[in-house]
Every structure is written in C-alpha cells, then in structure tokens.
Specification:
single chain, 564 residues, alpha+beta, nine-stranded mixed beta sheet, 21 helices, 24 strands
C-alpha cells in the first residue's frame, strides 16, 4: 500500500523548492531583525504545556516506554514558552526567537483538510506595550513585502475589552459559555445565552455587540462607547489606536482594519490579536498576538514578562503566491481565491428551506426571480434592487443552489461567501463558520422516539447491555445529547427511513427531526425525549466577513427585513 494517511501528503521536488524559497524569504526578514533560531521536540509531555494555556487539540497521542503520555506538537508557541521557562530563565531580555517547524492538528474527516502544517514564526519575549506590538507588526509587514504578495491586509483586534466585560458580569459559568460561543463564531447562540443571564441591559448589549464590531478607527470609538455604558471608564483600545498610527507611518502598502470576532482557539492571548490575509484568500496566511500571562513567574525577580508572537503558515503563503501567479505547486489547502469585485456568492438550500430563503432574500431587497425556478441550473444571478449609492448596497449576487447539509462545506471551503441552512446542518458539519442570524423559518424539533408498543424495552435493554442503540441521520447531535445526560449510546447512522431502525428491531430508539409529528404517528412512534429546536440560520465564511464589507451589509438587511 503506497498511499499516505488522510490529511498528510508527499511534497515533490518542484513544490519543495518553492516552499524552500518562501521559507528563505521569511527567515531572512526574521534574521535581519535579530531573531535567533530555536527548535523544540516533535513530541511533548502535555503536562509541561498545560500551565501556559490551552492549545488546539491533537489526535496524535502515544505512550513512551515508561508509560508517560506524549502528544505530537499541535502548536509552536507553548513549547517555546516551556523552553524559555526551563532553559532561558537567566537570559537577558528581550528574547527574540524564531522557528520553522511542522505541527499536526485535528480536522473533521472528509472535508479535504490537511492535518500537517509548517509554521514560520517568531516570539518576542520581554518587550511589551506599544513598542513590542509595533515591532511585531513591522516584522509581519516586512515578510509580506519580501514575498511581494500582490495584495494583503492586516485585521487586528484585542481580547482585553471582551475580558473586561466578562469580569463585570461576575459569572464564571456565563464567562465560560460566552467564550466558547465566541471562539466558535456562534453569535446566534451567544445572544440566546446572554438573554438567559441576569445582566444589566448595557452590559448584555456590549457583550453581544463587541464580537460583531468591524471596520476602521470608528469601530474603536464604538468599543469605547459600549464599555463606558457598561461601567468601564478606562479606555481599552489605546493599543489598537497606537497600532493604527504606526501602520500609517510605516506602511504605504496593504491595509489595516479592526475586527473583534478575532478570538483564536487558544486561550493564552491577553491583548492584541491579529491575522494577515493575502491575495483574496478567505483563510489567513498567518496569525498571532500578545500572551503576557504565559511566562508569569518564569524569570527570577520578575512578576510578569510580556510576550507576543506570530506564525505564518507555509502552506497558506504558498497558496497566496500561487493565486498571484508567482508560485508553481499545489499546497495542502487548495484555497479558493475570490476577487473583491466579484459578485457575492450565496449558498441557497434546496428542499424545505428554499421557499423561506427566497422570501428572506426578496424581503431584503434582491431580485430573486431566477432563483424561484432555476430549472437545472446550479448557479443563478440575483440583482440588488437598492440604489448603488445606498450605504448598504451589496450589488449583484450569485445564488449557488446546494443541499442544506452541503451549504456549510461550500461556505467553509470558500465556494460561497455565505449561505443559509438549518442549525442542525451547522452542528453536524462542525466547520469554522460565522453564525450571524437566526432566520426564524424552517422550524422543527429534534426528538428521541420509540415504537409505542415497545415501551420499557429500551430501559431494560440498557440495564442489561449498558448501552442504548439509536438510529439517526444526525450522529453528532445525538451523541452530544446522550453524553450530556450521561447515557452510553451506540449510534447507527442511517440516511433515510430512520423510523425503521426500532421497528425492525435493529435499534432501541431514533433521534430525528419532526415538524408536525405526522410521520411519527403514521408509524406508531411516540416521543421519549425533546432534544432541541431548530430553525434556519444565515452564516458566513469568517475570513470573507473580515475582508468584504458587503457581507455585513447583507446581514444587516436580512436582520432588518426579519424584524419587520
């Protein structure tokens, strides 16, 4: 068998040479500013990294010969924090370190994603504040210029305002839930969770609105207004304003914008976070930020050592250069590149959600006549009926007609900029998407059911076997529901006629959706559990939303039309 494991690939000489040249260009920039190379092991003891922060999980764990659990590196910053704390405690600060290293990360199966990446990164330890942030930004810009990328943008934010607001809430459970939802870009459930909490209106509004803020310096003004209304008098945007001033004087190329949805899946960031985008790609070519708490107590006589870092993805840089016609090769990410002037592309679901989606788009001011009856066409045009000089003008759009279950994959992979589907499809897909609006139509319920004539048999079978057998088209939703209730369930995934599972004795129960209950009644099934309610949602590719203001204009129009 000569194939590689899924998510891994061979790199042949032609592409390897391109990658080598890219790495050399970035390395030269880091080296010119005095950054010295370090290397950390491919395998790490997870206990040695736990104190510095939460890293992205890795599916690759093993035991060494003395029974100690080891993990394959999924992040480069935390191992360097460990290295510094263990080996460089007496070094003169600031430390300027750089690295070129592969890592592995967990990915959903069957989405075409790579599990091995190579990072080109640096860490600046011991230099904080505006000076440290400016050095980090300038070094990133140096590398982008050295690679001669045709277009690039820095998108910056800060975790500090958000953490201040959560501290004002004084509710640890709420803070934990809110952070999890913001990390997941799920603003719909964020609002639902905030509604449940007993918060002052100004504080609730600030927590809800802050991760949605984007734009130029005006976005920073709005942050200050929200925080002041919530009782936080001290400005929390000074570092970002200073960054904007430094950027204006240092760079005549590229652009800088602010977006407070940038909350990385790492929890060690304490201030500035930012991403670099290039060549019309929705995925960032690099990201980083400030993590001032990670080295607390690591240096003798120093309470807290400021630290910050940034890492480029070699694969994403390769894609960006390829998009600009400057690289020859195919990286692992297969990026979809869309120019800013192209029509906004919207994934529209077929089936039961189509009529509601068409009505919502029409109510938002689009000509959807071609979408009503597209025939066999898979992509049709839509016309914006607003005047071109309107502040929320979106322009002409393209409707990509897909299955509702496929809409998340199209948007996450860049085949569409945004789309509509049910909440269930988003949960099952488990992809990096920005959930913006609960559209309200397509309402249904997720339920557990069993044949009426088999009442009590599932409980007796569970007592005997220690597991419940369940048929469903929604394995992720079903598994999560049973796990929350402490029930061991064997999930049998089916793609149609789920009701047959317990009827023919293959399973004890089903987990499925119901709108009217007719199918359940006609097959003599009774509901044994209520799992969740589900409606259609509007969602977007996070990178596209940070790069293209039309997406926010579309979201605002959909929200306004829904509220009428």
């Amino acid at each position: 068998m000569n194939t590689t494991p899924w998510g891994f690939r061979d790199i042949l000489p032609e592409e390897a040479q391109v990658r080598e040249e890219i790495a050399a260009g970035v390395r030269a920039c880091f080296k010119a500013r005095g950054y010295l190379p370090v290397e950390t092991p491919l395998l790490e003891d997870p206990r040695a990294l736990a104190g510095a922060g939460r890293a992205v999980d890795t599916p690759f764990k093993l035991f060494d010969d003395d029974g100690r659990l080891l993990t394959v590196r999924s992040d480069n910053t935390l191992p360097i924090v460990r290295l510094v704390a263990a080996r460089l405690r007496d070094a003169e600060l600031p430390l300027r370190l750089r690295y070129e290293a592969p890592l592995v990360r967990s990915q959903p199966r069957n989405v075409g994603a790579a599990r091995q990446f190579t990072q080109l990164g640096f860490e600046l330890i011991g230099l904080g504040g505006v000076e440290g942030d400016a050095e980090m930004l300038e070094l990133v810009i140096d590398a982008l210029r050295a690679l001669d990328l045709p277009s690039w943008r820095i998108v910056a934010g800060s975790v500090r305002p958000f953490m201040k607001l959560l501290a004002c809430a004084a509710d640890e459970a709420l803070a934990r839930d809110v952070l999890e939802l913001v990390h997941a870009n799920n603003f719909v459930d964020l609002d639902a969770r905030l509604t449940e909490a007993n918060l002052a209106e100004s504080l609730q509004r600030a927590i809800s609105e802050l991760p949605r803020l984007h734009g130029g310096v005006a976005a920073l003004d709005r942050v200050d207004v929200l925080l002041a209304a919530a009782g936080i008098a001290e400005p929390q945007t000074d570092e970002l304003r200073a960054l904007a001033e430094r950027f204006a004087t240092y760079s005549a190329q590229g652009s800088l914008s602010f977006d407070f949805s940038i909350m990385n899946s790492f929890d060690y960031y304490t201030g500035l976070v930012f991403k670099a985008y290039a060549s019309g790609m929705a995925d960032p070519v690099g990201s980083g930020g400030r993590y001032d708490a990670a080295l607390e107590g690591a240096f003798p006589g120093v309470c807290q050592v400021p630290a910050a870092g940034f890492a480029f993805s070699l694969e994403r840089l390769e894609d960006a250069l390829d998009a600009g016609g400057m690289a020859q090769g195919a990286s692992a990410d297969h990026a979809v590149v869309r120019a800013a002037e192209e029509a906004l592309r919207i994934a529209v679901p077929k089936g039961s959600l189509k009529d509601g989606t068409v009505e919502a788009l029409a109510a938002a001011g689009f000509d959807v006549s071609e979408l009503v009856d597209p025939g066999r066409r898979l992509i049709v045009r839509g016309r914006d009926l607003r005047a071109p000089d309107a502040t929320d003008f979106v322009g002409d759009v393209e409707f990509v007609i897909v299955r509702a279950t496929d809409a998340p994959a199209f948007v996450a992979a860049g085949g569409a900029d945004c789309g509509f589907c049910g909440r269930d499809s988003l949960i099952e897909a488990n992809l990096n998407l920005l959930e913006l609006i609960d559209m309200g139509y397509g309402a249904c319920r997720f339920i557990e059911a069993e044949p009426a004539g088999r009442k009590g048999l599932a409980e007796r079978a569970y007592a005997r076997r220690g597991t419940l057998r369940v048929a469903t088209k929604y394995p992720r939703i079903a598994r999560a529901w049973y796990e929350r209730r402490g029930i061991t369930a064997d999930i049998v995934t089916l793609h149609g006629n789920i009701e047959l599972g317990p009827i023919v004795g293959m399973t004890d129960r089903i987990v499925d959706i119901t709108a009217t209950g007719t199918t359940l009644r006609e097959n003599d099934l009774v509901i044994t559990g209520e799992i969740m309610e589900c409606t259609a949602r509007f969602f977007a590719n996070p990178g596209r939303a940070r790069l293209d203001a039309r997406l926010h204009a579309l979201a605002a129009r959909l929200e306004a039309a829904r509220s009428l």
